[in-house]
Write a structure and sequence with these properties.
- This protein is mainly alpha-helical and 189 residues long.
């Protein structure tokens, strides 16, 4: 019996002393699984996907303006809350509700060193990995069993990991402060 299997990879940014940041899309099932499996990890909503979701709820001619305002607001929690109020007063309740629903998940990247913010506030790394898995699995077509899928996925992930370890380091862990201030900040939030 042949099976066709789709594989998705989550992005896991390790932190100190077991704290970490996980980044996904809106999928509620994945969110629940993460809460159960990665206890104590923070949840990072992709800022790009949040912006797109909010843009869908405003008129086409205002989407670019709203996207710019969201981008500006994502650097400060007070600006973000002010934008929610502004959108609500402009009559864009749907966009305001979207921002409000994810206000606690969209700024978790700020708990990490600023050098890493650009890399962990979006799901780019995860999407690139999924695209590579999809590209390489299409060549095979139908897999004879789950073991063959697992072997392919693991070999691809090992290749990606080797690239990160040997040269193309995505996040350099040595940039984290040597004292416990980083860990204490994570524990407080």
């Amino acid at each position: 019996m042949r099976e066709r299997t789709a594989v998705k990879v989550a992005r896991f940014v390790p932190g100190r002393e077991g704290k970490s940041n996980l980044s996904f899309l809106f999928n509620k099932g994945i969110q629940k699984a993460v809460r159960v499996s990665f206890i104590g990890s923070s949840w990072q909503m992709c800022t790009v996907h949040l912006t797109r979701q909010a843009q869908k709820k405003v008129p086409k001619k205002k989407q670019k303006e709203i996207a710019e305002k969201i981008k500006e607001a994502l650097v400060d929690r007070q600006k973000y809350n002010d934008l929610i109020s502004e959108l609500d007063s402009m009559g864009y309740k749907g966009a305001a509700d979207t921002l409000e629903n994810f206000q606690y998940d969209v700024m978790n990247y700020m708990q990490f060193p600023e050098k890493h913010w650009k890399k962990i506030r979006t799901t780019n790394m995860m999407e690139r990995t999924n695209k590579e898995l999809k590209r390489r699995s299409r060549v095979v077509g139908a897999f004879p069993n789950q073991g063959s899928v697992l072997r392919l996925v693991v070999s691809i992930l090992i290749d990606i990991n080797e690239d990160w370890v040997t040269g193309n380091k995505y996040i350099i862990m040595e940039q984290f402060p040597p004292d416990n201030s980083f860990t204490q900040n994570l524990m407080a939030n």
